[in-house]
Amino acid sequence: MKLSLNPILVFVCFVLLVATGCSSNDNSTPTYESELEELSLLRAEVEALADASVCDGTSECKFIALGSKPCGGPWSYLIYTTSIDVEQLQAAVKDYNQKEAVFNIKWNIVSDCASALQPTSISCENNSCVLTY
Predict the structure, then answer these.
(1) Quick one: signal sequence residues (predicted)?
(2) What integer pLDDT is reported at residue 114 of this predicted model?
(3) Distance from CA of residue 41 to its chain's centroid?
(4) In whole angstroms, how far apart are CA 109 and each of 38, 76, 95, 102, 106?
């Protein structure tokens, strides 16, 4: 009887080892840190695109709502000029804002519910865009 149990025990252990060895260790599920890093990189790209704009007599200063606060509304307003591909910037900002909104919901992000102050006007002074609140 002991001899017949050992092969069964060995077989069961073998099956368990194979099953655990073949199980998928899927590390493709994003973590909080990896998603936060992705958002940070995307925001840096958006800001770099806006920073490439030039304020002079041939371009117009503008601003766009940037970010998605958990309570709603943007975190801030990004200044840019029409010297860049405005449609590309607007699409990048829209993509960033949507991804941040999804991130906030997924990870239960909270913040104060204060609204970012929207500028009342913007002008170009000494080759710099100046916001007025």
Answers:
(1) 1-24
(2) 95
(3) 7
(4) 16, 17, 19, 10, 8
On the question of pLDDT at 24 being above 80, the answer is: no
**Beta bridge pairs of residue 63:** 79
Contact 41, 91 (CB under 8 A): no
The CB density around residue 128, as the number of other CB atoms within 10 Å, is 10
Q: Which two tokens stand for residue 126?
A: 């000494």
In order, the DSSP letters of the chain are -HHHHHHHHHHHHHHHHHHHHHS---TTSPPHHHHHHHHHHHHHHHHHHHHT---STTS-EEEEEE---TTSS-SEEEEEETTS-HHHHHHHHHHHHHHHHHHHHHTT-----PPPPPPSEEEEETTEEEEE-
Q: Which residues of 24-43 are buried (b: 16+ CB within 10 A; e: fewer)?
A: eeeeeeeeeeebeeebeebb
Report which residue type is found at 8: I
Global confidence as pTM = 0.77
